[in-house]
Amino acid sequence: MRMCIVGNGPSAVEYAKEIDTCDFVVRMNSWPVGLMGRKWNAWASSFSPWSHMQPEAIRHKLFDAMPKNLRVWVIGKPKSKWGYVKYRKGSPTITFSPPGWKPLSFPYDTIGVKIGRWLSGYLRRKRGGRRAGPSTGFQTLGHALTKQPSELVLVGFDAIAEGKPGWGDSWNPMFGPGASVGHNFANEKKEIQHWLKTREFCGRKFPKTRPLWWRLKKHIPPPVVRATLVSSNGGFIFDIELKRSSKWTKIGVFRAHKDGNVALTLEPQWRGKHLGSWAVRAGSEATTAKLGRVRLTARIKEADAAARRAFERAGYVGRKSKSNRALVYVTHHGTQYIQYRQDERYFLVSKRRERPRRRHARGSIRARMAQVKRTDTSRRKSGVRVVAPAYQPGRTQHRGGVPQRVYAPGGHEQRRQRASKAQKQRRRA
Predict the structure, then answer these.
(1) Is 73 helix (H, G, I), strand (E, B) or coil?
(2) In sequence order, what DSSP letters do the residues of 173-204 get, joined into one string?
(3) CATH class of the structural domain 2-216
(4) What fold does the segment set 225-353 form as a domain?
(5) Where are the domain boundaries for CATH 3.90.1480 in the chain?
(6) pTM for this one?
(7) Over the stretch 314-361, which tens digit does the pLDDT of each residue have?
(8) Mean pLDDT in residue range 46-72
């Protein structure tokens, strides 16, 4: 069987005819019908952002294009009610009931529980990097290899590096300043390239499956930019330098006042190359190291779209709040500007990283759990009935990583509770 897995990258458009000639075509999430071929045998999606996927599916007319023999590959375990997806435990089918369409039922396979743990554990152990879960396409590829097709075609696995300027394989400006997309596309690309050469995918060999042809863009590393302090009279002036081969080239100047106001100026020859956000980020980190925990502010003219885009991608917000999306205007020396400030999420995350993380000694959790079991055993022998912890509003179910045991109130327990209540009353008095 010749299986084809179609990603949502722009390179898949070039192979629309070749995709339709495959025996089994797997598509993921929402995709434009007609641009990347029309053949469709399996649909892989987590359905977690179904509130977003449902209008996308309607816009791309996916419900009209669904074949009768469609297989649904669910990334993860479906819940009892999941948006517009109806699922009943024990039923081998999953039903889509979008508004305006007749309910459609298809057989489904749950593939994301075991395969997701296998892939994520291997990437963290071998490839390293930040803690991230495997993407939909990566899990789909792992599930497809377990079926051992004779020939496997990969198309459109571009991630998001080349699709939109300013985006990266490990961060997405739409979800905040340098916020993680939840996936490590750089490591996933390396692992796929490794499999295409050795036929070994995440520690497992698949010698029967032969990669026929593929369109897979390689990982493009982000630019390396640094901020070098030049002057500190009345404020801070940093030279923004870009690393090219083994040399550092000056591309702009980042100025920061002691009250938190910042500004960026790029050299004319380096404008329009999508380096503004990286320069703002490098300058902001250097300023934060000098000023401490100060929320930085930038004043940008409304017509300067490039500067606004650079600061937004670097984690600055120029609107009041999510509910009220109005811009914040300020007047400085008779000129009207838009006030951009560091996103509160980035501000809090950076502050949290400064604190040293408390780490328990190895085996401490295990030892405390063993102590809990011994306590339970001794209480049972003394005639106290041990019950499972139940959820109670205002009380935590875990303390120090160990689940707390709840005991049935015997005679001694009732006396202890009465004593504690009396103590509280004395303290309040």
Answers:
(1) strand
(2) GGGSTT---SS-HHHHHHHHHHHHHHSEETTE
(3) alpha beta
(4) Aminopeptidase (3.40.630)
(5) 2-216
(6) 0.58
(7) 878 887 765 567 888 999 889 999 999 887 665 554 444 444 555 555
(8) 81
